[in-house]
Design goal:
The protein has one domain: Vaccinia Virus protein VP39 (Rossmann fold), CATH 3.40.50. Helix content is 44%, strand content 15%. The chain has 13 helices and 7 strands. It has helices at 2-14, 18-27, 43-52, 54-71, 74-78, 103-120, 144-149, 215-239, 263-280, 286-290, 301-311, 333-356, 361-374; strands at residues 90-97, 130-138, 158-163, 176-182, 240-252, 314-321, 387-395. It has a 7-stranded mixed β-sheet, with helices on both faces. It comes from Punica granatum. Pfam families: Methyltransf_7 (PF03492). Keywords: Magnesium, Metal-binding, Methyltransferase, Transferase. One of its GO terms (molecular function) is methyltransferase activity.
Amino acid sequence: MAYTATIIIHLCRHGYKTQALLVLGNRLSSAIFNVRYASLRSVHFLTTNMILQRWGVEKAKELIARAIAENLNVKQLVGTGTASCPGGRTTFSIADLGCSVGLNTFIAVENIVDSIKLKLNPASLSLECIEFQVFFNDLVSNDFNLLFKSLPSERGYFAAGVPGGFHGRLFPSRSLHFVHSSYALHWLSEVPKEVVDPGSPFYNKGRIGYATAPVEVYEAFVAKFSEDMERFLNARGEEVVGGGLLAFIIPCLSDGLPPSQCSLPAIGDVLGSALMDMVHQGMITEDKVDSFNLPRYHTSPKELTAIIERSGNFSIEMMEVLDRPPMPEVIDKSICFRMMVRHFRATLEGLIREQFGDGLVDQVFERFSKKLEESSIFTDPKYKPGVEMFVLLKRKIA
């Protein structure tokens, strides 16, 4: 969600002609389409996200191909072989965590497989002796039937689904060679319990995020992200073979940037403001809003580095910011607002429906749209965009 929001913010801030925007959309596809909490009834909105996110996956493809070429010792991981495969076929196992349902995950996986095949030939390894197994993972609520129906008919790998949250163990020990995840790790396993507890000093009354909340609330989100990320790294540390790779893209705040000055958390506050207006008009109860927070946190590169180093299972091989293309032209800002609202609806509709009921979903996002148009997020220079960080980790050999 954060990546698409960043692109739209950039579009709205700098402007973009409608025709140019459509050209951008035609270039896009996504390895990052993570709508883990979205209702699949919103197919139109999900399609909007898939179009908007293509630039990110194309950029990630380049980095992943480079990462495999420079950091993956295929011979060490799977051994040698000849066309006759005297030692039998070897399986190279890949997992895509937070895969969602569509084209995006297939593009990412095919890039990984193709990059590994390129690595095999110079290493004098036979392609006939290696089979690729890909595990597609997401929450149990994900539509795996839709995912499997969408699988490419001609693909160079065997496919399987693995339902469950990725913060804990999903696979047997030392069974994976490459793990990939795009724009999923900023989602928390759950909202910190203390921020929705009326008896807690961390109670986040009247807000649905931490951007402008008291420091105690912010620290609760920091602690929850740190806990989740450490669990994630420890689980992958058990599952990935020595020398195997873990690659992910995660939306971040620049080092030293307060969340109150970043446009991504600020947009969440706009949604919270729309919900509070509905409270004041008697459409929903205040306790419904007070018990609802967005389960996400945007870390910083410095903070993320410290967590990775503390876990001890992986070495950091690459950490790069994905540079966005310039946005040179001017369009009607209303197009940007509509894109932003569709994006947020695709990502958050399931949560809104679960908390406030089916009957209010349309009104929530209509009000959010109006609030967004009235906000200064796109014009006030104090709001800085987030950054998208590509991270490559290598499992240490015990």
